[in-house]
């Protein structure tokens, strides 16, 4: 009789993570048979005698009847969950639901998604729901665990493949000495510290853990910061484009490459424990696979990119081939003894990030992989966590690995603090960077499962490490989220507005360009801004490209760097701007930039550039992508838009251009230099309206521009702010005094009782053929002028008046410029309190 000890699972994780085929299932069974025969001979047993029990560890044998096809029907009294297919679907529903609920609960605490997912997996495992025998029998029977764990392994495989696709290893070449110093010091100090601790604690360690290869693996893991752990957390917190976020990403990429080398070295050491021949074959396998991907696969990828035509999507067949290729490479790496995780990750590195290929792969596969396969990966991790076993284990078993893990975490934090001294950061920024580089996540979880399978650690130690890693991320993330606010420097105490810029001085403008279609209106607006020798324009043109298919943002100064060919769309935009600059000779200075950045952090790059270039105004063309709602990282319940974030944090004034009619023709403003143009200013009072009037004054320097100013006032001055009223009066008097002699301005005052009368008066003006309407956004407007209009506006970024005159319901083809004056530091935005009123007068 052979008694079986419960093992890790019904399949060997070692074959997936390390590819070691020296301990295959059949070989192990053969060894068990030999051991059984040897025991019989030693006992002098005959065939008729009762054999003694022989313990064969780590060989779980599961005998289970093959389930029928999934055609069960509850109406015929079938047990629905008896069918494996339905059981897998139920497991997916459970884990996704649990993680979403945990995510909802933890979101106010600013917890990253990975924490919720790991907690969800632990809840599914034997520590919580799995402790109930009935729940385990129904939802986690051995055969279902087998399938779920294999799906989890596939999830990790695809996750690492996508991480490799997003990673830009060219960052290593671009990194300076300071970044390399941070990487080296941040790794060397923990390695030395942990090695000393290992030597001191070695007598108390398990024999498997005290091996040289095990020590190297543990020290290496605890000393590095994984890019594909840090990136998704920074992405969730909108910190990818921040200064500290960029440093953390570039540092982690360098560390990851060094970590791959460490991994190969430690695997060679582990194979050497089985003999020199095993180590040699492992090295040969690594070299063969790397050569295959570096030559054959790379040429195939280059052929796909060269065959692709600009402006057309990558053919679906190529995406299918590459995703299938990740499975083929994973199979080969497993067969060669390299490991399934390594092969898929290396293949991802071969594929260029960004458009056209990398972005297409990510767009078409990321949702499916992250939201369907990865939940099973967290089931795999959670089903191996047993908190009861951890608590029941003797402290002498746990304290060596616990001490090492804790010292490793603390050591890495202080090592990064020391290394970051060369970066000239503030103390808060250094702490935030060090905490970012201390994050734990998917990579650590994968390797800890591998350690468990190799016998380096047991279930109690594994459970403790998983909880410790999750706890570190749980604690660290909200701390650096609170310490580091990338928007804090944007609010300054010095005026950067058109109103406060002397008339005969240089005007600095930051143009935000989304695509070539929005460029025509911007060029026309620049022409009407009328640069002169006394008042030239200093233009910073920023082409904003959505970052898809890569992880690290790119910021390119065209005067110093060459734009990658895969972002060729920027060439035509900047060439058009250059031709316009040449036509103006010394009247315009042009500085061209391209930013490949996430949509959610666009405002950070725009505001940072406006701050560093000391821009007077940011001009943004109204684009539907910039007013699409997205989660607001600063609030757990509200959504926001790119345009709203820019307007809320801009260190200068902001102008939003809605181009219609003739403004969509790039030659409109210069096609007939002697044509007379009719513009109108809707002056409703307040800082935004005063800034709009200052911009209109700038346009009146053009002798072929006529300007009509309509001022709206409340009847009997009801609701007026005395100070704002005086400022408005002073601004209008200055404007009239400067331009009255030109006889190209008109002025009219309209008194109204509420918002309905305000819109009715504006509606009556549309019959005059004005080519552009200039309005202030909303700040400082007398609430009486907008009374009853609180529910009317579709785009709060434009303000009620701006939204109305730019809407299709207004019935004109006039362009609209909505202006917001700079918000100084310490000043809170005051929004008028409006009462709802139904509008049905037209």
UniProtKB/TrEMBL annotation:
Residues 681-822 form the Cation/H(+) antiporter C-terminal domain. Keywords: Ion transport, Membrane, Potassium, Potassium transport, Transmembrane, Transmembrane helix, Transport. It is a multi-pass membrane protein. InterPro entries: Cation/H_exchanger_TM, CHX17_2nd, CHX17_C, CPA2_transporter, Na+/solute_symporter_sf. GO terms for biological process: potassium ion transport; proton transmembrane transport; regulation of pH. The chain crosses the membrane at residues 83-102, 114-131, 151-169, 181-201, 213-234, 246-266, 278-297, 317-348, 368-390, 397-419, 464-484. Its main location: membrane. It comes from the Eukaryota. It is found in: Membrane. Residues 96-479 form the Cation/H+ exchanger transmembrane domain. GO terms for molecular function: antiporter activity. Residues 538-661 form the Cation/H(+) antiporter central domain. GO terms for cellular component: endomembrane system; membrane. Belongs to the monovalent cation:proton antiporter 2 (CPA2) transporter (TC 2.A.37) family. CHX (TC 2.A.37.4) subfamily. PANTHER family: CATION/H + ANTIPORTER (PTHR32468), CATION_H(+) ANTIPORTER 24-RELATED (PTHR32468:SF109). This is Cation/H+ exchanger domain-containing protein. The lineage of its organism: Eukaryota, Viridiplantae, Streptophyta, Embryophyta, Tracheophyta.
